[in-house]
Every structure is written in structure tokens, then in C-alpha cells.
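QA checklist item 7 of 12: single-chain prediction sanity check.
[x] sequence parsed
[x] length recorded as 102
[x] structure emitted
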Amino acid sequence: MEIFDLMKLEAEGYENRKVNVFFQNDLFKARVIVLEAGEKIPECQMESYVMFYVVKGEVLLQKNGESSILKENQVFITEPALISMETTSGARLMGVQIKTRE
């Protein structure tokens, strides 16, 4: 059994996000996402279902042009979509990509 502490996992910025993956198998991939104050993740067409859970802080989340604030201890789950996010104060999230059936 392995338990992950989302506050203690080391993470790098968006440009080097591949190192932030802490679990991956054939069905899904989980990573820590850390955004410093003023940082953003540019629009990205997600080809899978995704889930974002805010561990600390808050982000302005955009899905297909629709905006909403995602706050600490809230989770967002969506089908494949065009996603972006940004923060004014900084945030730490868990992102999970869930593969769709082919």
C-alpha cells in the first residue's frame, strides 16, 4: 500500500510538469501541479477525462471558454475539453487524467 502526501510531494513548474507525475498506470495518470502567484497554465485540449483537486489556494479555471473559481478542497471533473487555469495568489493541485475507452 502506498499513501501520497500531496503537500510533501516535490513539484516543478508547468514547463517541466512531466516530473510531477507521482502515479501512472494504463487507466490514469496523477500529478502534482504547483502554480506560483501570477502563474498560469495555457489552454490545452485535454483528450481524456480530467479531475483537478485544489489542495491549497485557488485558481481561475476555464473550460471551453467558461470560467469559474476553484477553491481549496474543491474538485472539478470534466470530459475531454479545452482547459486552462491561472492563480493570483498561488495554488497546489492534484491533476488526474483518466483515459477514455477507445
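[x] summary fact logged: Strands lie at 21-24, 28-35, 40-45, 49-63, 66-71, 75-78, 82-86, 91-98.
[ ] second reviewer sign-off
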